[in-house]
Amino acid sequence: MAKGNGREQTELSQNLQQLSEKARTTTEFIQRLKQMSEKLNGECEELERQVDARCDALIRSIERRRQWLIDAVRQDKEIKQRSLKDHVTSCTCKLQKTTSLLQFCIEALKENDPVSFLQVGSMLIARVSNTDMTWHKDVLPSPRSYHQLDLTLDDNTVLKAIEHMNFIQMKTPSAALIIAEECSAENNSVTIAWQPPASSYVEGYVLELDDGNGGDFREVYCGTETICTVDGLHFNCTYNARVKAFNSAGEGEYSEVIGLQTSEVAWFTFDPCLSSPELCFTPDNMTVTCEGFEHRVALGSVGFSRGVHYWEFTIDRYDADTDPSFGVARLDVSKEEMLGKDESGWSMYIDKQRSWFMHCRSHEQRCDGGIQVGSTVGVLLDLNKHQLSFFVNDEPQGPVAFNGLYGVFYPAVSVNRGVAVTLHTALDAPSDLEDC
After folding, report:
1. Of all helices (H) and strands (E), which one includes residue 305?
2. 84: alpha, beta or left, given left = phi > 0 and alpha = psi -120 to 50?
């Protein structure tokens, strides 16, 4: 019997322990509920303060607008009152002159001497007739109304906006969706388009691109638009792009990544906006001439910072005693002197018999062989080796002209009177160079 009691006591003790644990857990849960209630009260009070503050700000804005509108009404009233006053003054003056004319005519009609009447009669008839004809123009108001305020207060938009004021459940946005069919790559630019995430409040977007070699992503755009074009990228590279939306609650997830391939070879034209204003270009911006005797520089429309690029010029016109200069330049190159004379230009200038390489006014490496009408001058910019070389009629013109080229370089040429050259792009680079 004692064993039975011990077993029951153990079972009761275990049950009491379990029940006590549940009571303790319930007590803690009740405490958390009370804390949540207190937090809820605090959040409600803070939200009420925000509502009061924002509504007060709206009321102050309405008060300022009300005063502006009242001032506008009073200003319009003053303008119209001045017009009415001026019209009254004009009419009064006209009436006084007309009254004087009437009195004078009445006295003239009393004249019994026909000869005396004839002396003033014709003149009075003309004055009365003219006054009668101009009466409508001088006295009656113009079609513009001076006594009405042509103002109607439009408050429908504001009233609707006030009626639509409400609370929103602010959450971080969902992932944006890139629209693949609207994305494209052209030359060394890519365009990415995306659509807003469904059922999300969005304040803006962040667009990121990698380095074209699978490296880290970097931010290239932040704003509210849903399409962006990024210029100045490397040629013959695949750029990965992704976008994310954000609002005051935080940033959403990234979209899926899209890859866009830039062109293998560059096609470009002369850029009149980057070139000397004294140059003349054909409508397609492929041919350049100059009317002056001094050299003026024309730049291409793209800049290169990586890869191998080759383009050519054909000589369309070439008079004696002139030497065009071909090469590359930075954007800040002097446009008012021969290419290569300052530190921002690297060039080969050439005449009918020979050529020289020039940079910072220093010219060297004279090579025989010149140009004439129909000749081609090729420029090879190898930014993998950081070198610049030249060709004439598909043959190397001397050795490598310049080494150690780092940064961004634009195709360039300088011409003066008597020279016309046409640019040809998107060409394959020639084979290895041979010494002059």
Report:
1. none
2. alpha
Contact (Cβ atoms closer than 8 angstroms) between residue 206 and residue 219: yes
The answer to whether the Cα torsion of 109, 115, 120, 124 is positive or negative is positive
User: Of the candidates 358, 404, 216, 233, which has an alpha carbon nearest to the alpha carbon of residue 307?
Assistant: 233
Domains of the chain: 9-140 (no CATH), 177-261 (2.60.40.10), 270-424 (2.60.120.920)
Per-residue pLDDT of the chain (436 residues; tens, 9 = 90+): 555 577 888 888 888 888 888 888 888 888 888 888 888 888 888 888 888 898 899 899 889 988 988 888 888 888 888 888 888 888 888 888 888 888 888 877 877 777 767 767 778 788 788 877 777 666 665 545 556 677 788 888 888 888 887 766 678 888 999 999 999 998 888 999 999 988 788 999 999 999 888 889 999 999 999 999 998 788 888 999 999 999 988 899 999 999 999 888 888 999 999 999 999 999 999 999 998 889 999 999 988 888 889 999 999 999 867 889 999 999 999 999 999 999 999 999 999 989 999 999 888 889 998 999 999 999 999 998 999 999 999 999 999 999 999 999 999 999 998 899 999 998 888 875 444 3
Which two three-digit tokens encode residue 284?
A: 């397609």
User: Regarding beta strands 189-195 and 218-223, do their DSSP bridges make them parallel or antiparallel, or are they unpaired?
Assistant: unpaired
Total count of residues recorded for the chain: 436
Which segments within 271-424 are labelled E, that is strand? 279-281, 287-290, 296-299, 308-318, 325-329, 345-350, 354-359, 362-368, 376-382, 387-392, 395-396, 410-415, 419-424
378 touches 392 (CB < 8 A): yes
Q: Which two tokens stand for residue 344?
A: 């921002």
CB 243 within 8 A of CB 194: yes
Rg of the chain over all Cα atoms, to the nearest angstrom = 43
CA distances from 91 to 102, 213, 436 (A): 16, 85, 97
* Share in percent of the chain as helix, strand, coil (round to 5): 35, 30, 40
What is the β-pairing status of strands 308-318 and 296-299? unpaired
The β-bridge relationship of strands 410-415 and 325-329 is antiparallel
Look up residue 364 and give its two tokens.
């060297």
